[in-house]
Amino acid sequence: MQILNKLTIKHLLMNKKRTLVTIIGIVLSTALMVGIGLLVSSYLESMRLDVEKSRGSYQAMIEGINYQDLEVIENNINLSSSYYFAPLGFAKINSTNDYKPYLYVSEASSNFLDTLTLIQGRLPKNSNELVISEHVNSDGGLHYQVGDTITLDIGTRKLDGEEMEISHNYGLASSWEEDTTTFQPEELRVTMSKTYTIVGIVERTFYEDYSAAGYMAFSKDSNNHNLYNIYLEYKNPSKTYEYTEDIINNLNLEDLSSNYNSQLLYFYGVSQYDNINSTYLPLILIALTVISVGCIIVIYNSFAISTMERKKSFGLYASVGATGKQILKTVLFEAFLVGIIGIVIGVVGAFVGIYVVILILNRLLYDFIDIEFVFHVNLLYLVIPLIFMVLVIFISAYLPAKRSSKITPIEAIRGNDDIKISKKEVKTPKFINKLFGIGGVVSYKNIKRNKKKYRTTIVSIVL
Length: 463
Prior knowledge:
This protein is α+β, with helices and mostly antiparallel strands. It has helices at residues 2-14, 16-55, 67-74, 110-113, 134-140, 240-250, 262-267, 276-309, 311-319, 324-364, 379-405, 409-414, 430-449, 451-462; strands at residues 60-65, 79-92, 102-108, 118-121, 129-133, 149-159, 162-163, 174-177, 180-183, 186-202, 214-220, 228-234, 258-260. The two termini are 36 Å apart.
């Protein structure tokens, strides 16, 4: 068998043009298939990062837990990170926005403060320093600046005589009638008064709902509090729902409010209602299947012509004792050699090509969309195209190899099994001679005498 493999390598080297054409076909097919996977993978990662930017990187959050439960949750082995803020309450301000008459003041952990995007100044270093959202000035019509000292009367909101939980930044209760919005009157039960120095201004945070009645403001946590809102990031995001439910059940937190960053989890490939892989995988499989049909025919053409040219060699091999199985393996070995070279170059080409495409997209679409595309490799979307490509090469080589392995030594040496035609069938129409001359007549007869070879070539060109 080693001798046959050496002869196969020699055949490839002697027919460099044929070998190069086959490798180029595999390179282009591989680049196309892997490129599709890389595009989908990069798109999903870009969308995930965009969601993190707009909605945060946390996967789950729990509102209103006490200090003891906070310590237990922070020590959970499944967490990669956790951060929190402790709501102190609401403070009345002179906002020009009737829907947001409060500051929602909280003390936050250091890693929570690090999730804020600083515009001016710095982050708080103690509980007497405060950062406010630029939304307070732009939307509320106030003019707070870094270095200002403000005294806030902080307390709990009361609606219809009942206190509202300070763990949530509820919107104002209102009714709408005849183009007029009427707000239900609220009271503020002041529980503390505190003086802060504004040390920084940050971008409006995603922690603040659009319907919230209070602009969020944060100082640094320095004391133990009764209520905390904690945000959770897990080592394995795919088990977010399972891990969070375990925490809630083990600590008896069923009565507390909790929610999930469902849009982010969707791009991690996990959702309570749908899985992103169930959306994109079928689309990729359909696309790869359609492309595979074309690739098989194109690559099959090279192997079919190669086996036709080697039939006399196969006949000689068979005459000295080579079995049909060994001849089959010889052709498959040829496919293996050119396949390895073609796939490696094709994968490199796909990586370079898609990376360049993403750079161009970012340059062209910079002024139109607020999304920066990133190059990302998801092994799932890389392995599937490679599996398809291996199958394409195997099928393309196996079909002509199987046919060649069945031919008898005499037929292979004579080489007349592919040409089965009568004199009548090679009769040339007169218009061929008139249009193309004697060269056209010879070409036409050659095509008619070897239909199989040229039919494959024509189909390849069409595809």
